[in-house]
Amino acid sequence: MVTASTIGMRIRTVRRHYGLRQEEFGKKIGISGNRISEIENNKGGTNASVLEELCRSFPVNHEWLLTGVGSMHKIDEKNDNQNELSKRLTMLESAIGRIIGTQGGDEHESPLVSVPLFSSAVPAGMPAVAAEEVENYMDFPRSWTGGRKNVYALKVSGDSMMDIGIMPGDTLLVESRETARDGQVVIASLNSEVTVKTLCISDGGNVSLAPENRKYRPIPVTPESDFRIMGVVVAALRQYR
Q1: Looking at residues 68-91, what average pLDDT do you find?
Q2: What is the pLDDT of residues 144-189, one digit of tens each?
Q3: Catalytic residue among 119, 160, 192, 215, which?
């Protein structure tokens, strides 16, 4: 299994695997060598059309390219069932983890961890876009963080995720990260609009942000979209008064 921590690093892995210089690689997918250098060094990001052209020009697994999960190369059809089962088990494990948290930890550590609560609410976002002010600090069970260090909290507005139990006014515990798997609940920026939705990646490589409420339709991520993953939801907390 080949993995890398960012899309830029994974693109570099593909280029080096095929023994191509940046200019040669860029020519094959329709961009300049200088742009390849920027992408590989995580400067300015990239868009869906570049990733789609890369997957058309090379036998690269689109899910690995987007998330770092799975094999770098496309799999044979005969292995589809096994990989589908593996994906479903991973999604189930993730869902269970959001409900009961990850057990374990140093017995001398405090059972609680203090997490910054940002003042802006996301439509049912990410503090870096809306407002970077820390409103307060909240104590969460340490087991909920699963040992993650880069976590924060924010509140939800709107009802687009209520079918999976994320209600208006809930507080989300979020791991700040740039990648996510199909089926995870993410904080995402799409064309400068920040939202919390379920990430969906189809077998054909199409990406969308799905609400968990039948009143709303999935939001497609087109090749022209300015799209970024900004965090993965770890847990939701609700207060009753």
Answers
A1: 59
A2: 888 887 888 888 888 899 998 899 888 889 998 888 999 999 988 8
A3: 160
- The label of the residue with tokens 């695997």 reads 17
Beta carbons within 8 Å of 78's beta carbon, 6+ residues apart: none
In the residue annotation, 114 being an active-site residue is answered as no
Distances (CA, A) of 122 to 22, 128, 138, 186, 207: 39, 11, 17, 11, 21
CATH, domain range 7-74:
1.10.260.40
Give the fold, CATH level 3, of 112-237. Umud Fragment, subunit A (2.10.109)
Rounded to 10°, the helix 22-29/33-40 angle is: 100
Every domain of the chain and the residues it spans: 7-74, 112-237
pLDDT level of residue 198 (50, 70, 90 thresholds) = very high
CA distance 188 to 172: 14
DSSP per-residue codes, 109-156:
S-SEEEEEEESSPEE---HHHH---EEEEEEEEHHHHTT-SSEEEEEE
Angle, alpha carbons 220-223-228 (nearest 5°): 70
Can 57 be counted among the known catalytic residues?
A: no
pLDDT tens readout for residues 3-14: 345 788 889 889
Q: Which is catalytic among the residues 120, 155, 189, 197?
A: 197
Residue 78 in this model has a pLDDT that exceeds 80: no
Give the model's pLDDT for residue 184: 93
Looking at residue 6, what DSSP letter applies?
S
